[in-house]
Write a structure and sequence with these properties.
Layout: E1 2-6, H1 13-20, E2 26-28, H2 30-37, H3 49-66, E3 75-78, H4 84-92, E4 96-99, H5 104-114, H6 119-131
Parallel strand pairs: 1-3, 1-4, 2-3
Helix pairs in contact: 2-3, 5-6
Length: 146
């Protein structure tokens, strides 16, 4: 099965996956990929342009291969803001799209405490896109204590 986990930055997507995935499952997460590709002491949420470019290429390759095995293992893919094209592809693959959102106030507090200033813009964009007119479902998901 393919699970696409969406939600705002610091919304609890990784925590949701930790609660549901098994050690045999595949987890595709840009933060984890970027961390695996950088040296000791690199920030947990590395926004360096070169790191992001290399990590993105690795992510695309991982997705392409992992979806071939979704009948053998569960695949958990974090995609904060999938485009309509990406969403259509995920739906074509039979994905279960899960939205993890503890609420805007909680997310903004977490971002202020632990993420870069630029992440606030991503939070704003996520809430405009997913909450505008109530057009997309947003579920409340408890997360770890920050």
């Amino acid at each position: 099965m393919l699970y696409v986990i969406t939600g705002p930055p610091a919304g609890g997507k990784s925590t949701w996956i930790q609660a549901h995935a098994t050690r045999r499952d595949i987890v595709i997460d840009m933060d984890r990929i970027a961390s695996a590709l950088t040296g000791p002491g690199a920030p947990a949420w590395n926004q360096d342009a070169v790191v992001q470019r290399v990590a993105q290429r690795a992510r695309f390759a991982a997705i392409d291969e992992a979806v071939k095995h979704r009948d053998e293992v569960d695949v958990y893919l974090i995609h904060t803001m999938p485009s309509p094209k990406a969403r259509a592809r995920y739906e074509q693959l039979g994905a279960d799209i899960v939205v993890v959102d503890p609420g805007e106030d909680v997310v903004r507090e977490r971002v202020r405490a632990m993420r870069s200033d630029g992440m606030d813009r991503v939070v704003t964009r996520w809430y405009r896109h997913y909450r505008k007119g109530g057009s997309r479902p947003v579920t409340t998901q408890a997360s770890r204590a920050w």
